[in-house]
Amino acid sequence: MSGSQFINHKGKNIFLMEYPGEIDQLKKMIGEAKKTIATQSPQSVLALSDLRQVDLTNETTEIFKDFTNHNKPYIKASALVGISGMKKIIVNTISTLYRRNFKIFDTVDEAKNYLALV
Fold first, then answer.
1. What's the CA gap between 54 and 85, in Å, rounded?
2. Element containing residue 106 per DSSP (H, E)
């Protein structure tokens, strides 16, 4: 399943984004997520991104760079799942480029538990 929605975990609202592997669906989902995030107060969003289905190509990397830059004013904390190998290098580059701190976890539950403590 892919999509984005606010979920409640241990009393905290977390914006969960489960990214699809297909590029057109990914673009559509990110467009919708941008609109939702932009309605939130600055520095208020606890974001959880599940990237297990995404292949990071040049095109998807550019999409995520734009998304990261767009969301910067609204994000309080970010947790990522599905990051290893080349994805980790790309995430570290995006993190440095946009001065964002992404915490990487092996499971969605670990990421949710981290965000519940922020």
1. 13
2. none
Tokens 């599905």 found at: 82
Q: What's the mean pLDDT in 21-26?
A: 94
Residue 17 structure tokens: 């984004």
Phi then psi dihedrals of residue 48, to 5 deg? -125, 115
**Phi, psi at residue 56, to the nearest 5°?**
-85, 105
Letter string b/e over residues 80-114, b meaning 16 or more CB atoms within 10 A of that residue's CB: bbbbeeebeebbeebbeeeeeebebbeebeebbeb
Q: Which tens digits make up the pLDDT trace of 50-67?
A: 999 998 889 999 999 999
Contacts of 17 (CB under 8 A, 6+ apart): 3, 4, 29, 33, 47, 48, 49, 50
Superfamily, domain 3-117: STAS domain (3.30.750.24)
3-state secondary structure of 61: helix
Distances (CA, A) of 82 to 12, 38, 51: 22, 25, 5
Yes or no: say if 46 and 80 are a contact pair by the CB < 8 Å rule. Answer: no
